[in-house]
């Protein structure tokens, strides 16, 4: 990915920022957790932050950095992933109860 960014003539500071972003995700304590939702949280965080950063790049001249993990935002994502998972499980259980009647 880094090579593709360089081939696309990304500014070096942006390439470096993304490299640090991915390194920090790979070394985050949630990454080594055996809880599947913890790792999914990092995936959702990565996707959302990259999406928002790319939207911001079109709207602002002074971009924010993704280099550091925003732990407050990550905790919000973790809660969202947790509740989405449990809502889906509850809905599956409701579906099975309705169909077994």
List the helices and strands and how they pair.
Blueprint: H1 2-7, H2 12-26, H3 36-59, H4 71-99
Helix pairs in contact: 3-4
Description of the molecule:
Helix content is 73%, strand content 0%. The chain has 101 residues and is mostly helical. Helix 3 crosses helix 4. The N and C termini lie far apart (52 Å). The mean pLDDT is 88.
Low-pLDDT residue intervals, each spanning 5 or more residues: none
The helix/strand series, from N terminus to C terminus, equals HHHH
Number of domains: 1
Major sheet details: none
Q: Give helix % range.
A: over 70%
Give Rg in angstroms.
18 Å
Query: Strand tally, please?
Result: 0
Keywords:
101 residues, single chain
Brief account:
With 101 residues, the protein is an all-alpha fold.
């Amino acid at each position: 990915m880094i090579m593709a960014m360089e081939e696309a003539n990304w500014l070096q500071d942006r390439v470096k920022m993304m490299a640090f972003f991915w390194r920090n995700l790979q070394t985050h304590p949630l990454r080594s957790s055996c809880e599947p939702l913890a790792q999914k949280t990092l995936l959702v965080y990565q996707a959302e932050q990259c999406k928002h950063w790319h939207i911001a790049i079109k709207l602002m001249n002074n971009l924010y950095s993704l280099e550091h993990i925003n732990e407050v935002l990550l905790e919000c994502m973790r809660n969202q992933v947790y509740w989405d998972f449990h809502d889906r499980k509850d809905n599956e259980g409701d579906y099975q109860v309705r169909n077994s009647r």
